[in-house]
Amino acid sequence: MPPPDPSLSPPFAFPPMLPYQTLIALDRHATIPLTQQITAAFIALINQGVLPARAKLPGSRHLAAQLAVSRQTVVVAFEDLVAQGWIEQLPSKAATVGAQPPIPVPEPLLEGPASQLAPRAGFTFAPRPAVGPGVRPTAPSLLLGGGSPDARLVPLEALARNYRAASRRALRQPQLLGYSAPEGVLRLRQQLARYLHDTRGVPAGPDDIFVTRGSTMAIHLLTQLLVQPGEVVAVAARSYGEADAIFRHHGAQLLRVPLDAHGLDTDALAQLCQQQRVRLVYVTPHHHYPTTVALSAARRVHLLQLAAQHDFVVLEDDYDFDYHYDGAPILPLASADRSGRVLYVGSLSKVLAPAYRIGYIVAPSDVLAALAPIRVLLDQLGDPLLELAVAELFADGGMQHHLQRSCKTYHERRDVFCEALHQHLAPWFSFTPPAGGLALWGVFAAGIDLPMLAAACARQGLSIGEGQPYRLPTDQQAHLRLGFAAHTADELRRSVHILEMCLRQLW
């Protein structure tokens, strides 16, 4: 005789009385509402078999008394459980556990499943060297890093409003939530084309722009397309560490070019090009990373001439063009490129905040067409809704207003920081105030041990980095890049006070 179907059985009277006050632990100080806590607790009891199928549940008044909550709280929790299919409740009847859980309980693959993941891999691999210090689990209260914008200035309300509008638009156009073009949303590319033309003289149309998740992805995609293992990539003697790491990752040989107060030494580059074949030259001409110096107009023209003469590609990383404080900035190389040899990379992460991963490439259309299949393998597409939200920020003037406000703020912070450094650190630290950007570059007096100073500052809640990514074998003194944009005037003065205190204690 077959066993009875449990779905046809009458509700169990068991369990007649469970100690729900001990089975359901409520945290009355948590941000999660009590109704949700009760709902989650009952789901757990059902999954664990404490409450079997068809078991009767206590009445709302009785359970409310056991848990010391209002009856309405229990009623709302039970309604949620009914809506999810965990329990059944008929009028004038006691609630019961459903005959089948709405989500099937998976069967374990092995008896006695592991309680946690293995702490180490069961295979060998070669870890990649770290590019920089990375993100520490416990961030210091003050961080004078390489130069980040102040996230407190981001127009969050406007971005959130635009994102909601894009989401509502997706209700009418569901294709916005599907796979889209790898080069990015057309609306954003149109706005970027106008923005680049108006602010930098770059004559790009929407079809000349490829949207990425930040400038790092842009450099990675271009390097993968253009550089073969063993080919030479020329970079400045001190250069952007992440870009260097990308070039090495793709098998490039790095050729270091001397750097001075006028930027990359193009005469030295010309001599190097006579000695070996250079495939690509990476530059940050507006404010060189890390030294902040600008590549002179004469050297920019010379670099374009060398590119044509020696048949190399120029990768122009213009990460902070929008922040210039003294005099008129020199327009990018891309604004004067007539031969299609300059690939222009920019980012909105420095304009907004690092969390907003939107970068872009300006390049000839055949280059962008070749990038599309590479991008699809790495990252199927960007974030169409975010791209639409940012596009509207450009279209309604919100981005321009934000740039004007943030540029004024960062200019004031630069002045405050430079004044405090001159006043308090002159015996130990010398620098030239940068004409723009989010950071300054300086050199410590002979005998200053930068790792020791960094450790002392860290104990006081200030992170300055150890300068290792920028160090050259020939350096006799420690150099350091200090970001000022992310902190208020008071925070910057406090940072300088900590630096002065630590320097006086150690030297």
TrEMBL record:
The keyword DNA-binding applies. In the C-terminal section; belongs to the class-I pyridoxal-phosphate-dependent aminotransferase family. GO terms for molecular function: DNA binding; DNA-binding transcription factor activity; pyridoxal phosphate binding; transaminase activity. Keywords: Aminotransferase, DNA-binding, Pyridoxal phosphate, Transcription, Transcription regulation, Transferase. This is PLP-dependent aminotransferase family protein. Coiled coil: none annotated. CDD domains: AAT_like (cd00609), WHTH_GntR (cd07377). It comes from Hymenobacter jeollabukensis. SUPFAM superfamilies: PLP-dependent transferases, Winged helix' DNA-binding domain. Gene3D superfamilies: Type I PLP-dependent aspartate aminotransferase-like (Major domain) (3.40.640.10), Winged helix-like DNA-binding domain superfamily/Winged helix DNA-binding domain (1.10.10.10). Transmembrane segments: none annotated. Residues 32-100 form the HTH gntR-type domain.
